[in-house]
């Protein structure tokens, strides 16, 4: 019962909304709430509606407490009083439930419970419940009272207040709803403790937003209270029961949490009260929402509302800044505050990227969505413009024109060049970002000083911001901003510091932590009212690892009491307020000069004058110590440096100068000065001059002056006037070692320094080697990017050399300047961009934020350089989505591999197929050096040979970069240089094929060849050589081909060749053998679950009936041999399969976790296998999306033409099609895959309908998807799936998944459910009674389970077929004599082939895009000939053919020959007139009429096609068989063996029987009608049976 102990009376705070105190905030409010509701909102039934997440945590507790309290309250009323009823209803969680269906469901529940007007509804949950249940209450019985119990932070501060209720529709979110004010809103903050962290962070966005628009002090609480606020929710203290219910038990963190939530809720309540129905004021709440909502609209399924508006707030604040209303200080504070709570500040945020994947949010899309914002008026966008933290420009949203919005949103800028008509200011005076080191020092000193100081040019960074807040918390000073953030007014506190009331949080600000450690020792306990007795400084986790030990040691030795609260030597520190004793302080200064500066800065405030003695040898960064002393001097304290490293600091108090100008950061200062130099204007920087200690400060005098600028410098200011545009002079030689960061600025100027009468305009910059290891290799980057402008530049070992170009000759980089995420590259190229006449795109504009966040604003508003916002495809985006070109087809192709594997033969085939020249490396070597390999090795040794080999292969690749096939020597990989060369070749998109063969076979083969002395011997065991080289071959090749034909058996080379050409076609992309995703009919793949397929090969043709692909389940393979590795075994299996079927192969390694056999622990091994499949040129590779992102994306990068099936299987059967989880898997699959595959498990048939709904809900789907439910209950999903349904076959040993069906079963099922109506097919013509066509097609229909039927329709008169053609059941027809031409008049259109042949033999029924039925006339006769002949002959430019006969069939024969590439076609016929007709019909086919066959052919025919009746008694003279091993095609099929066939075969020719051609033709016809490949082997069997009858 302890769970239900009574709650203490809670201390609550109330907020009034619409003049009633209906919002109640506190901790542990359940009982309070129940009493309040029962007493103040009387009802007979209280119906609590919640979601299943919350129900499981809270419902039981609430229900029991409700019943207890109700009965107690009513007991006291007397016996007759009936306590009210408590009922509850639970819906699924998430936005998916916020729809009309769920609303109806809840209403039905209420009605079934006989709820009446006398019902009070309690909406217990997040915004989804609040909106939905609020809407139910608004309409149930025309409106019943509702109580909102928000349980998410978002719901508390936003959705529960204001009475807006709604549901979503497929047309958009919140489109149907009502205003319905809740009677009460109970914010029990204890509920937040169970909230997932991401949901909590989500709500913080609204909290921060509200503070940002109206309450700076609340914002400061948020800025400083990060750790407490997060802890109060995420790691709450549980010291006492019901902690926080009463003020006594409430922790400070809880109080702070309550305060910030109350502030946010109050503001919303206030707005609602003054402005219930949306108008001006309410618009303020939309800060961040104009852009945020647009992002949300695009990414709503992936991102939460708060995440979107967080990004929106940053963008809108930047917009305000660019419009000149908001300073960078405020933007920086906002950004840091959002970030510190874990909110994203841009869509590039890593966490966001992970969620969003490849989905883009383009500027156009965002602008488009912003158009429909409710706040807009007449197309003009309205956005809340912040004018400071806690302030807005207007008390409502402000009109903003499109261009500035677009600019802010755009990731890239396009700089508009300066022309004579540009409105450039003549003379610009501007301050540039301050030096970070000086900013930090000046802040500390001005705060510790007496009097008021105006700090100008302070750098706005994390460090300075944190420092400022900390000094404020220490009560050390007051700060105020002036001049739009350019001046900080410091009212110094004279060193009177107090113990802050909470810990000081420093984030990761290193300098601040060092400087403040000593400052905190200065705190002295001043008053007794202070609650804390010590000062604690802490930071984020990174900070907690940074060392501070030596400083703490020195201070402890000086009697300061400092404790490490966590790790020894690091923050957090607890510092006692004892003041600093002073006297001699010893400090080890060899680690950081910041320790020294820390003590120096605070030393004047010690009780005794300090003598600081630096120990530990070498003092590092003396200039920084000098800087500290110099700044101290400006604030009135003079440090004396004694001998050695000893400093004496007098006691005293700093005095604030009325103004202190913080010196500019000298590197940043170079950019505006360079703009003056390149555009010819004058620029003055008042905050940096000759007295500066920063090296880069010499830029003006040492670089700009000699280049032709006029430079005037005072101690603290610099003015540069540029020469007229185009007249900068080159600097022949400059050492920039003392100002390395400025070399980029110098380089872009050197690029246009072309004014040198004396000749060359080369600038050489040296001394900058360190720039190679900055954000990027800046020297390389500079050379690269300059070249895009047409500027020649080259790298020097420690510098760069640049050829100055005339400005007019500069090109605009086509895809813009790439910044390598380096701020200096972006800023320097924006200098160059000022003069490039066609404009310059800088790709990543955001990278300037590191040092000059408002650089682009300053460039425009201060320097007068205009630019446009612009969006260009980022290079990264291209990575996963677009099929990156892995290889270039034209580059020469290389073969590597052991001797004897068949490189030369395969090389020849490749050369032939690609039309490349073949170079055999060994032969080339011998010819060029005029020495045999053998002799060379004999004479010079192996080492020399390998070197020579490398030399020659390099020169070969240089000389023959494209159009060659180079077969390399076996040992090429022995030389590391050669290996590097091959690897580089692959990187440059070359193809290197590693040819492998069973290594034992190779050894035997080579042994037999031992007479071969042409090649050098290994001199060691063959297998040792192979073992050494194997890994090298693999790393030096991007493809691998297993040759299975022994060199001794040339007859097998035909098969090898077919297979190898398929491989070549695939890797070069000329024919990838993949399924056309455009095709309309269903496709299937059959899963092979064998452990060894070699014994099953004879079944493959049958098993694959109706399939469009074959899946090789690699995880079910198992090799029994222990001499062969699994990978080698898999390659053999894969190759066997590829040789036994032309269907594309799906390579799948299914893991145990996803229902397969591959061990879940072997992730690396799995990806190795998958990578091999890519090397082997497999058409499809299945990747399970559950593996690590890096492995997957690395693999995908190398996919080449392989299509990736990104799959996910719910083996446990716990995931539903309407869940958020399945959507997440969908998005991940979509990101990785070319094909998406999602498999769940069906519990009932309903799950199949859910699946269909899921498919229907995918709005814009561009990639094919496979969705299946496993299990018998899921069979319907297999019937309905469209693309690549996995199927089984009765001949297979086991199904690969429960519920799997065969193609035939699926077709039958489709027919029965009305999705595949029966069609009738016919043969038109006469005489046709002996035709075998019905056997062909009916066999096909039968085997595949298709319901169709094929019949003869014999008739003389073509008009008889008309009614058949018009019948809606008509499915298609074969056409033979005498109708092949006359049928055309009934057809809607004729295919190109049929037109060219002049005959139709196939009628196809098509349904066009408007659903209209169309009849197409086509011709498959020629296809029968073409495909029968193609595999048997090699056609070249001299090939000729002979067609016998000149009737209708001869046309198809001629056309087929022509398509095969035969250039000379002899046509023999007894009557010349008929041939002449053919010649006129085929004018360009190279026809040669013959009236006699007994003659000498100028090119003896290689193919003979006979189209005369088989019974003809014609004589065939020997002359026509002169060609060696030609092919005869007999078109007549009765008798089966004609005279021609007999005679030809006697002569050694290959004969093709008429029936074979007919079957081939029929198979193409079948495919055209049904989209399916006909079952050839069974058709052949049945046709021959009929034939022999
Ligand atoms: N009416 C308005 O003025 C208004 C304003 C803003 C947002 N909204 C609406 O609010 C909805 C978003 O609300 P949300 O962000 O609260 O999301 P939500 O209601 O979907 O809740 C988020 C998730 O957290 C779970 N959850 C809620 N409270 C929990 C708790 N205490 N412990 C554990 N889990 C908990 C929920 O079950 C859910 O899975 C959107 O539909 C949006 O349109 C309405
Ligand atoms: Zn919002």
Description:
This is Pentafunctional AROM polypeptide. Keywords: Amino-acid biosynthesis, Aromatic amino acid biosynthesis, ATP-binding, Cytoplasm, Kinase, Lyase, Metal-binding, Multifunctional enzyme, NADP, Nucleotide-binding, Oxidoreductase, Transferase, Zinc. Residues 429-859 form the Enolpyruvate transferase domain. Residues 1441-1509 form the Quinate/shikimate 5-dehydrogenase/glutamyl-tRNA reductase domain. Its main location: cytoplasm. With 1589 residues, the protein is α/β, with parallel strands linked by helices. It is built from 53 helices and 61 strands. An eight-stranded parallel beta sheet has the order 48-47-46-45-44-43-42-49. Helix 38 links the parallel strand 43 and strand 44 (1145-1148). Helix 8 packs across helix 9 and helix 45 (1333-1344) crosses helix 52. It starts with 12 loop residues before the first strand and ends with a helix. Residues 51, 53-54, 93-95, 98, 125-129, 131, 151-152, 154-155, 158-159, 162, 164, 173-174, 191, 194-195, 199, 202, 305 line the site of nicotinamide-adenine-dinucleotide (NAD).
């Amino acid at each position: 019962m302890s769970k239900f102990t009574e709650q203490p009376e809670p201390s609550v705070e109330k907020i009034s909304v619409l003049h009633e105190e209906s919002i109640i905030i506190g901790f542990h409010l359940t009982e309070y709430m129940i009493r309040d509701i029962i007493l103040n909102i009387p009802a007979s039934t209280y119906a609590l509606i919640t979601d299943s997440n919350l129900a499981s945590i809270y419902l039981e507790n609430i229900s029991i407490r409700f019943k207890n309290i109700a009965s107690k309250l009513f007991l006291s009323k007397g016996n007759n009083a009936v306590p009210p009823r408590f009922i509850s209803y639970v819906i699924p969680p998430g936005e998916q439930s916020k729809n009309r269906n769920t609303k109806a469901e809840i209403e039905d529940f209420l009605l079934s419970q006989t709820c009446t007007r006398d019902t009070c509804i309690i909406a217990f949950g997040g915004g989804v419940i609040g909106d939905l249940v609020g809407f139910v209450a608004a309409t149930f019985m025309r409106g019943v009272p509702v109580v909102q119990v928000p349980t998410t932070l978002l719901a508390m501060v936003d959705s529960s207040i204001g009475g807006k209720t709604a549901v979503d529709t497929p047309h958009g979110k919140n489109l149907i709803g009502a205003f319905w004010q809740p009677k009460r809103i109970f914010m029990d903050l204890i509920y937040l403790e169970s909230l997932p962290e991401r949901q909590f962070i989500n709500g913080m966005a609204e909290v921060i937003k509200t503070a940002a628009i109206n309450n700076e002090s609340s914002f400061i609480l948020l800025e400083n209270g990060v750790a407490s606020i997060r802890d109060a929710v995420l790691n709450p203290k549980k010291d006492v029961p019901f902690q926080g219910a009463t003020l006594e038990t409430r922790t400070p963190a809880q109080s702070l949490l309550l305060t910030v939530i109350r502030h946010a809720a109050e503001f919303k309540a206030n707005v609602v009260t003054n402005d219930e129905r949306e108008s001006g004021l309410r618009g303020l709440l939309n800060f961040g929402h104009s852009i945020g909502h647009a992002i949300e609209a695009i990414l709503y399924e992936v991102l939460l509302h708060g995440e979107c508006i967080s990004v929106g707030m940053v963008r809108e604040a930047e917009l305000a800044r660019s419009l000149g209303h908001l300073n960078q200080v405020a933007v920086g504070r906002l950004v840091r505050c959002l970030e510190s709570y874990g909110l994203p500040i841009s869509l590039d945020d890593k966490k966001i990227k992970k969620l969003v994947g490849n989905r883009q949010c383009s500027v156009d899309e965002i602008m488009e969505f912003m158009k429909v914002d409710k706040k807009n008026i007449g197309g003009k966008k309205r956005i809340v413009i912040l004018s400071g933290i806690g302030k807005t420009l207007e008390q409502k949203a402000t009109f903003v024109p499109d261009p500035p919005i677009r600019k802010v949103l755009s990731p890239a800028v396009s700089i508009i060049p300066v022309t004579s008509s540009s409105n450039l200011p003549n003379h610009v005076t501007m301050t540039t970002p301050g030096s970070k080191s000086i900013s930090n020092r000046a802040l500390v000193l001005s705060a510790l000083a007496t009097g008021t100081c105006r700090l100008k040019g302070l750098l706005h960074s994390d460090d300075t911001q944190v420092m400022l807040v900390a000094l404020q918390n220490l009560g050390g000073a007051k700060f105020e901003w002036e001049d739009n953030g350019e001046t900080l007014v410091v009212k110094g506190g004279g060193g009177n510091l107090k113990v802050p009331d909470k810990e000081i949080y420093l984030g990761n600000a290193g300098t601040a932590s060092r400087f403040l450690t000593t400052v905190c020792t200065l705190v002295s306990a001043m008053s007794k009212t202070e609650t804390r007795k010590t000062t604690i400084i802490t930071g984020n986790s990174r900070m907690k690892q940074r060392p501070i030990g030596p400083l703490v040691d020195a201070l402890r030795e000086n009697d300061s009491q400092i404790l490490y609260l966590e790790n020894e030597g690091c923050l957090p520190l607890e510092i006692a307020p004892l003041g600093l004793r002073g006297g001699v302080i010893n400090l080890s200064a060899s680690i950081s000069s910041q320790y020294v500066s820390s003590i120096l800065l605070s030393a004047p405030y010690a009780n005794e004058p300090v003598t600081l003695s630096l120990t530990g040898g070498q003092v590092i960064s003396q200039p920084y110590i000098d800087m500290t002393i110099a700044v101290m001097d400006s604030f009135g304290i003079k440090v004396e440096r004694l001998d050695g490293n000893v400093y004496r600091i007098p006691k005293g108090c700093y005095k604030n100068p009325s103004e202190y100008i913080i010196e500019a950061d000298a590197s940043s200062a170079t950019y505006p000065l360079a703009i003056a130099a390149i555009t010819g204007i004058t620029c003055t920087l008042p905050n940096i001059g000759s007295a500066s200690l920063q090296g880069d400060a010499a830029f003006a005098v040492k670089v700009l002056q000699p280049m032709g600028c006029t430079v005037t410098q005072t101690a603290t200011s610099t003015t540069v006037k540029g020469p007229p545009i185009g007249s900068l002079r080159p600097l022949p030689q400059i050492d920039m070692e003392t100002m390395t960061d400025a070399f980029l600025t110098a380089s872009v100027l050197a690029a246009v320094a072309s004014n040198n009468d004396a000749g060359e305009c080369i600038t050489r910059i040296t001394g900058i080697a360190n720039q190679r290891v900055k954000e990027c290799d800046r020297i390389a980057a500079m050379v690269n990017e300059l070249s895009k402008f047409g500027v020649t530049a080259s790298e020097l070992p420690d510098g760069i050399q640049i050829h100055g170009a005339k400005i007019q000759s500069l090109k605009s980089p086509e895809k813009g300047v790439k910044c390598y995420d380096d701020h200096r590259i972006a800023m320097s190229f924006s200098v160059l961009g000022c003069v490039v006449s066609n404009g310059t795109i800088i790709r990543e504009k955001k990278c300037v934020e590191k040092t000059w966040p408002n650089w682009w604003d300053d460039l425009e508003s201060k320097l007068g350089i205009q630019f446009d916002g612009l969006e260009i495809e980022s290079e990264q985006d291209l990575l996963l989505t677009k099929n990156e070109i892995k290889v270039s087809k034209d580059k020469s192709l290389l073969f590597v591999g052991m001797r004897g594997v068949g490189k030369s033969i395969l090389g020849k085939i490749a050369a032939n197929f690609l039309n490349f020249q073949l170079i055999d490396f060994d032969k080339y070597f011998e010819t060029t050096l005029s020495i045999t390999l053998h002799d060379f090795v004999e004479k010079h040794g192996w080492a020399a040979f390998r070197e020579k080999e490398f030399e020659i292969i390099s020169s070969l690749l240089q000389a023959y970069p494209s159009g060659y096939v180079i077969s390399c020597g076996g040992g090429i990989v022995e030389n590391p240089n050669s290996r590097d060369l091959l690897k580089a070749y692959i990187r440059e998109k070359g193809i290197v094929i590693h040819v492998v063969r069973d290594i034992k076979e190779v050894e035997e083969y080579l042994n037999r060849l031992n007479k071969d002395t042409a090649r050098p011997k290994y001199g060691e065991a063959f297998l040792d050589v192979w073992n050494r080289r194997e890994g090298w071959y693999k790393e030096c090749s991007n493809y691998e081909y297993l040759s299975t034909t022994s060199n001794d058996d040339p007859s097998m080379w035909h098969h090898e060749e077919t297979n190898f050409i398929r491989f070549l076609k695939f890797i070069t992309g000329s024919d990838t053998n993949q399924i056309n995703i455009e095709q309309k009919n269903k496709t299937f793949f059959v899963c092979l679950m064998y452990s060894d397929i070699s014994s099953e090969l004879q079944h493959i043709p049958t098993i694959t009936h109706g399939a469009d692909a074959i899946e090789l389940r690699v995880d079910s393979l198992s090799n029994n041999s222990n001499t062969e590795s699994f990978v080698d075994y898999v390659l053999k299996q894969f190759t066997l399969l590829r040789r036994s079927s032309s269907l594309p192969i799906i390579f799948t390694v299914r893991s145990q976790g996803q229902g397969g056999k591959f061990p879940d622990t072997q992730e690396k091994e799995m990806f190795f296998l998958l990578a091999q499949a890519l090397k082997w040129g497999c058409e499809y590779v299945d990747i399970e999306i559950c593996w690590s992102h890096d492995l997957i994306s690395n693999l995908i990068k190398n996919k080449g033409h392989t299509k990736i099936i990104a799959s996910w299987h719910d083996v446990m059967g716990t995931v539903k099609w309407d869940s958020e989880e399945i959507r997440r898997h969908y998005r991940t699959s979509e990101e990785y895959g070319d094909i998406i595959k999602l498999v769940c498990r069906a519990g009932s048939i309903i799950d199949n309908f859910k699946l269909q709904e899921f498919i229907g809900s995918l709005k814009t789907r561009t990639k094919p998807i496979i969705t299946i439910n496993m299990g018998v209950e899921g069979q319907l999903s297999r019937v309905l799936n469209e693309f690549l349904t996995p199927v089984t076959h009765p001949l297979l040993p086991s199904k690969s998944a429960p519920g799997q069906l065969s193609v035939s079963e699926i077709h039958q099922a489709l027919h029965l459910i009305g999705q595949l109506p029966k069609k009738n097919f016919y043969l038109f013509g006469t005489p046709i009674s002996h035709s075998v066509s019905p056997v062909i097609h009916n066999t096909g229909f039968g085997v595949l389970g298709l319901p169709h039927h094929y019949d003869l329709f014999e008739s003389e008169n073509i008009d008889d077929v008309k009614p058949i053609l018009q019948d809606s059941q008509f499915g298609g027809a074969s056409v033979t004599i005498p109708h092949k031409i006359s049928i055309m008049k009934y057809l809607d259109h004729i295919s190109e082939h049929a037109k060219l042949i002049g005959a139709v033999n196939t009628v196809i029924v098509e349904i066009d895009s408007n659903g209209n039925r169309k009849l197409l006339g086509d011709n498959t006769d020629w296809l029968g000939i073409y495909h029968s002949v193609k595999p048997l002959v090699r056609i070249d430019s001299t090939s000729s053919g002979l067609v016998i006969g000149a009737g209708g069939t001869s046309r198809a024969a001629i056309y087929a020959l022509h398509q095969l590439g035969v250039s000379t076609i002899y046509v023999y016929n007894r009557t010349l007139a008929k041939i002449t007709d053919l010649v006129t019909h085929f004018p360009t086919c190279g026809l040669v009429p013959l009236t006699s066959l007994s003659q000498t052919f100028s090119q003896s025919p290689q193919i003979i096609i006979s189209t005369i009746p088989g019974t003809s008694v014609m004589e065939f003279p020997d002359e026509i068989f002169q060609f060696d091993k030609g092919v005869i095609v007999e078109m007549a099929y009765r008798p089966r063996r004609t005279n021609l066939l007999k005679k030809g075969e006697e002569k050694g020719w290959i004969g093709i029987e008429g029936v074979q051609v007919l079957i081939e033709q029929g198979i193409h016809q079948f495919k055209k009608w049904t989209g399916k490949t006909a079952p050839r082997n069974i058709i052949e069997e049945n046709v021959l049976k009929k034939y022999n009858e």
